[in-house]
From TrEMBL:
Pfam families: Sbt_1. Keywords: Membrane, Transmembrane, Transmembrane helix. PANTHER family: SLR1512 PROTEIN. The chain crosses the membrane at residues 6-22, 34-52, 58-79, 91-113, 125-146, 167-188, 229-249, 261-278, 290-311. This is Sodium-dependent bicarbonate transport family permease. The keyword Transmembrane helix applies.
Length: 318
């Protein structure tokens, strides 16, 4: 319960309430975009500074390998299950959405760890970057297979073009670039950037979560008419994926902080990068389905209940 009294979480709850009350409170899109880029840049710097201090270790390599494995395993397990509930196009899109990650969920989890003085590796920001693209690529391959099976005239997307789009995405490049800056500048860079990446971070996150609360509330109508089984999936899948990550972290001997963040990454669902790509790559899928479930149900669940559950479980078992 104490985690809900965190200012950033309370601003998220306030945003949901304001949205449900149909308030005209609104965060202009350019400001929302700026806040998103700021958080990614600050997170990348923090990760780079931490990597400069720790260096590359076996645990870091294990964490990154586990992240990539989960990014491949989750959509491959999700797709056949979702095919029982929705058409193939929607199943592929949902598998990509839940196989990828939410940067804001991850950033909120790092704040939870900082607040409770639990250590974690800065390299987990790199794990987040690595987990974003594999699910998208798998989903597009599945969709192209469906097109071939159905003999459709619509051509599949070029794998080369998709790889380029995934790895040159502005947000992902900013995260990686900021991490490299932090890695190269080390302690001196950390001291110089402290007002930017440290002092301002909590307030900026609170402002952004207010915007996310408004957006989540305003996307709830998209869930009207969706099968209760899919709504159950939007809550059950994160719990299953987090459990899978916990087992993997236990097997690899990861620390509680790193294992907990791996659970958060596995449990999160993308609502920005993946839906933007899927609109072009799999136009046959219904955006109201994959966007509505990830932002309307999974994101609020993870922010309000999932993060403390995953991190406290990791602390007990790892």
């Amino acid at each position: 319960m104490t985690s809900l009294l965190d200012p950033a979480i309370l601003f998220f709850v306030f945003g949901i309430c304001a949205g449900l009350l149909k308030s005209n409170l609104d965060i202009p899109l350019p400001i929302s975009r700026f806040l998103s880029l700021y958080l990614l840049m600050a997170l990348g710097l923090k990760g780079g500074f931490a990597l400069a201090k720790s260096g590359l270790t076996l645990e870091i390599a294990s964490s990154l390998g586990a992240a990539v494995l989960l990014a491949l395993l989750i959509p491959l397990l999700a797709y056949p299950l979702l095919r029982r509930l929705v058409p193939g196009w929607d199943a592929a899109a949902l598998a990509a959405t839940y196989g990828s990650v939410s940067a804001v969920t991850f950033i909120t989890a790092t704040q939870y760890l900082d607040q409770h003085q639990l250590s974690y590796g800065g390299h987990m920001a790199a794990a987040m970057a690595l987990m974003e693209s594999p699910a998208i690529l798998l989903a597009v391959l599945l969709a192209n297979r469906l097109r071939r099976e159905q003999g459709g005239a619509q051509a599949g997307h070029s794998l080369r073009a998709l790889l380029h789009e995934s790895f040159t995405d502005g947000a992902q490049m900013l995260l990686i670039g900021a991490m490299l800056v932090g890695l190269l500048t080390g302690a001196a860079g950390q001291a110089a950037m402290q007002p930017f990446s440290g002092d301002l971070f909590k307030g900026m996150l609170s402002f952004f979560l207010l915007d996310m609360g408004l957006l989540a509330a305003r996307n709830l109508p998209q869930l009207h008419g969706i099968s209760p089984w899919l709504m159950a999936y939007a809550i059950g899948a994160p719990l299953c994926h987090a459990t899978l990550a916990l087992l993997l972290a236990k097997l690899l001997g990861l620390s509680a902080g790193d294992g907990g963040l791996l659970m958060v990454l596995a449990a999160s669902a993308s609502y920005i990068a993946v839906p933007a790509v899927l609109r072009e790559a799999i136009p046959e899928a219904r955006p109201a389905l994959y966007f509505g479930l990830s932002l309307g149900l999974t994101f609020p669940f993870n922010i309000l209940l999932g993060i403390p559950l995953y991190l406290q479980t990791a602390q007990r078992l790892l």
